[in-house]
Amino acid sequence: MPGVRLQLHRSGDWQADTALDDSAAALLDVLGPIATAERIVVAQLGQSLDGRIATRTGHSQYINGPVALAHLHRLRALVDAVLVGAGTACADLPQLTVRNVTGPNPVPVIVDPRARVDAVGPLFEEGSGPHRVLQLIADDAAPSPAPAHVERVRLPLDRGRFSPASILDALAERGLQRLLVEGGADTVSGFMHADALDRIHLLIAPLIIGSGRNGLDLPAIDRLDEARRPRIRTFRLEDELLVDVILREPALD
Fold first, then answer.
1. Which GO terms of the molecular function aspect are on file (predicted)?
2. What pLDDT, on the 0 to 100 scale, is given for residue 175?
3. Which of 115, 123, 128, 138 has the most CB atoms around its CB within 10 Å?
4. Using CA atoms, how far apart are residues 7 and 14, in angstroms rounded to an integer?
5. Residue 6 belongs to what domain range?
6. In 119-160, at which residue ranges do the beta strands (DSSP E only) sit?
């Protein structure tokens, strides 16, 4: 927005010295709370209208379109680190870089208690991949050798998993305070169940799958008064819908 004087507030609100078009204003509305936060944990899920992220066979390419992918890359550009589980790292061989928009690359973090992610793929390629990768492994894991830019971080297990709190502490010790939990569904659900998320961005495509993998899988409840009813904001992304689920209001102190 050349020539526009823009002020962002800690609350995520913004002010401009001239009128902005609707698309620019919507971008500021949805991304402002993330851009201004000193510490935040935000997750994203791309899903169908009926809450599915893949078919029963695991096929998910592609539920969401280019506009949702661009939004994901904007989120990556605004955080210090982007986190995926071992299943996602093995199945997708992701790059976890910012490519569709302009911005810095976050530090990739792989949650891999048993060190089952082989040191292959874009994240482990020296020179062409990220300059720094964190691989979170259990104290007794025996990982294969990895390039020098991959830091193995050993964490204690809690019933076979890492607690989100221990993950966030390890990242904070390394100066990584703003985290995007990108996938997969088990990882996002684990952070949600532990009340470790501040926001979730649900990117909903105009698609009905009817069966398959749910985006969130949380412990069963018996009564609706046990369900969470968070505040939400909605934004149109061409023919898709972005739901900004606010699980914790930002601290303004």
1. 5-amino-6-(5-phosphoribosylamino)uracil reductase activity
2. 97
3. 123
4. 5
5. 1-36
6. 133-138, 150-155
Pairing of strands 52-54, 213-214: antiparallel
Q: How many residues does the chain have?
A: 253
Mean pLDDT of 221-247: 96
Pair (112, 202) in one structural domain:
yes
Place 155 in a pLDDT band, splitting at 50, 70 and 90: very high
| Distance in angstroms (rounded) separating the CA atoms of residues 29 and 33 | 8
Which CATH number fits the domain that encloses residue 85?
A: 3.40.430.10
Strands 52-54, 107-111: pairing kind: unpaired
CA distances to 109, 159, 167, 168, 185 from 172, in Å: 13, 23, 9, 6, 23
The verdict on 8 and 54 lying in the same domain is no
Which of 162, 163, 167 is closest to 180 using CA atoms? 167
Q: What is the mean pLDDT of the chain?
A: 90
Nearest of 99, 98, 134 to residue 117 by alpha carbon: 134
Q: Are residues 12 and 114 in the same domain?
A: no
> Helix or strand or coil: residue 158?
strand
The candidate with the shortest Cα–Cα distance to 168, out of 194, 150, 148, is: 194
Quote the crossing angle between the two packed helices 22-35 and 66-78, to the nearest 10°. Answer: 40
Residue 126 is given by DSSP the state T
Instruction: Say what the pTM is.
Output: 0.91
Q: Is residue 241 part of a domain?
A: yes
* 82, 187 Cβ separation under 8 angstroms: no
The Cα 63–Cα 48 span in angstroms is: 7
Q: Which amino acid is at 64?
A: N
Q: Within this chain, do residues 16 and 69 fall inside the same structural domain, yes or no?
A: no
